[in-house]
Design a protein that fits this description.
single chain; D-Maltodextrin-Binding Protein, domain 2; Alpha-Beta Plaits; 3 domains; 7-stranded mixed β-sheet; 5-stranded mixed β-sheet; 11 helices; about 30% helix; about 30% strand
């Protein structure tokens, strides 16, 4: 038996991750009491880590697979395989400044500080992503060329351009301006917290969500890759299940064809004759966004509608991991 070591994230997407895994596996034991939890599958060994650490630890082979954010994969520049987007934990990386600032975009902000020979101070947990994004801006290149912004942490300073300084934030980044820094590079879901702290967004950087990542060497291990393929099938089943509805409806024989014409399905609806003559039961899987369109038709020509949210929908297609190894 080849045990697969699986790292899952602590923090803002921890609870959402547990809910996701509970849909994929039957039970999770030990949550809330330890950094080690147990899935129903004894061949998977789980540990909870900070999402910032997971890309690097997976790259180094401490873990075979992990769940983290796209933002942290990019920040770590880790040489790992991104196997699938799990489509939860969705956030946006943004740059924000105090509402009192006249500038409304990043180029104008850089230009204003450069023209006044003032040092632009930025706070962020994403040091390498912030530096790369700032450096790629045309206004930065015009004023500073190819020189790296200065990154400042309690233990090191790197970069040559002390006219743009990026300070490591240990959290509560939105509280730093205007006294400590001029701008922040942070994540947001709706922008509400930024607004409550009198900040406005001047640049949208990237969208992030939870992703399943893997160590490339683990994908070459015959036994581990089979278990990882099983994990992908179960996780993919949850992603698909959250987009669908399972509906059951009864319909008279004379209305059956009209209903089937309007009803989408993964393949074809299942039609069964009821014990009462002239009545049929129809059940099918549909996209959630199709349901509201179906309701008017079903209300007029059918009865007894039952709607269920499927736990998983597993296509059970062959999963090819060679492209990631």
């Amino acid at each position: 038996m080849a045990t697969v070591k699986f790292a899952i994230p602590k923090g803002s997407i921890e609870e959402a991750t547990f809910k996701f895994l509970e849909q994929a596996w039957q039970s999770i034991r030990g949550r809330g009491r330890t950094y080690r939890v147990m899935l129903s599958d004894p061949e998977i060994e789980v540990k909870i880590l900070r999402p910032q650490e997971i890309p690097t630890y997976v790259q180094e082979g401490f873990y075979d697979v992990g769940i983290t954010g796209k933002d942290w994969v990019r920040e770590a520049k880790a040489d790992i395989a991104t196997l699938m987007d799990l489509e939860y934990g969705k956030v946006k990386q943004v740059i924000a400044v105090p509402e009192s600032f006249a500038t409304n975009n990043l180029s104008d902000l850089i230009e204003e500080f450069a023209s006044k020979n003032k040092t632009l101070r930025i706070s962020s947990e994403y040091l390498t992503t912030t530096a790369a994004h700032i450096k790629s801006n045309p206004a930065y290149q015009k004023n500073f060329g190819n020189v790296d912004p200065m990154i400042i942490t309690p233990w090191l300073r790197v970069g040559e351009n002390n006219r743009v300084e990026i300070f490591l934030s240990f959290g509560a980044t939105e509280a730093k301006p205007p006294e400590d820094v001029d701008a922040i590079f942070d994540i947001t879901e709706t922008g509400t917290t930024l607004g409550q702290n009198n900040l406005k967004i001047i640049d949208w950087v990237m969208e992030s969500s939870a992703v399943l990542v893997a160590n490339r060497s683990s994908l070459k291990n015959t036994k581990k890759r089979e278990k990882i393929a099983d994990m992908i099938a179960l996780l993919r089943g949850v992603v698909e299940g959250r987009k669908k509805l399972h509906i059951f409806v009864n319909v008279k024989k004379e209305n059956l064809d009209r209903l089937l014409e309007r009803m989408p399905a993964l393949k074809k609806p299942t039609v069964s004759q009821l014990s009462e003559q002239g009545w049929y039961s129809v059940n099918t899987i549909i996209d959630k966004n199709e349901f509201i369109k179906l309701v008017p038709a079903m209300r007029k020509i059918a009865q007894g509608l039952v709607v269920l949210e499927p736990r998983q929908i597993l296509p059970l297609d062959e999963i090819n991991l060679d492209e990631h190894a």
